[in-house]
Alpha/beta hydrolase
Amino acid sequence: MAGPAVLLLPGAGARCDGFFPGLADSLAAEPGCRVISQDLPEPLGAAAADLHELVERLGAGPVVVVGQSLGGAVGLLLAREYPGDVAGLVLLDATPINDTVQCRRAERALRAVAFVCRIPVIHRVVKAQAVRASVREADRVQMRPDCAAAHARVAAEADLVSLGRVVAGFSDLSAQFDENGLPRVPAAVITADRKPTHAVRSAHQRIADVLGEPLLCWPGSTHSVHLTHPDEVLEAVRDVLQRAQAGRTIT
């Protein structure tokens, strides 16, 4: 399956290496498929420009962007600001950059956590709680062993102090974001299993509507949908790649 390169973007505070268990290897095994794993650039205000420079330097564009959480939001920023760089989008419970209220709340919460975590003992306690929560979630949804290990590793490695710096100004970016300016490219918009009236789901539905795609939601999926439903995510990426390669035109 020759086609566009795939640009993988993890959530905030995580390394891309190992963030999507099995996904990069499965895609790389496809004939002609190039996979680019990239940590999120900082600061967020310059992330789209930094990724544009990366895509140009590698001669890889246009790419299919696969982003989870804040990585999905950054993928949307890249698509809006540099539409020629993006052949397709796979948004994995993306941070709802098109909902300024939710983004403002998230930024405030993460900056508050970052502030208290400047005290090393509090940082250690909060990270330990996050690791325990990740183990409980992995057990509850019966994650694959490699996905459960990745979930715990991301929680253990998270630098909660730097997260405050990463999200600084995110609500301002959200206020300037217009979903109607997105290019109509093949996409998979995937949301976690929440109530139909949840604000995040509504934001995802608006993105899906603009892109002309159905909103995908798998029972039992969480914010870490790439870990709770890795096989479904792989198939969604393959589908977008195939449609992007076919040069599908959306009118």
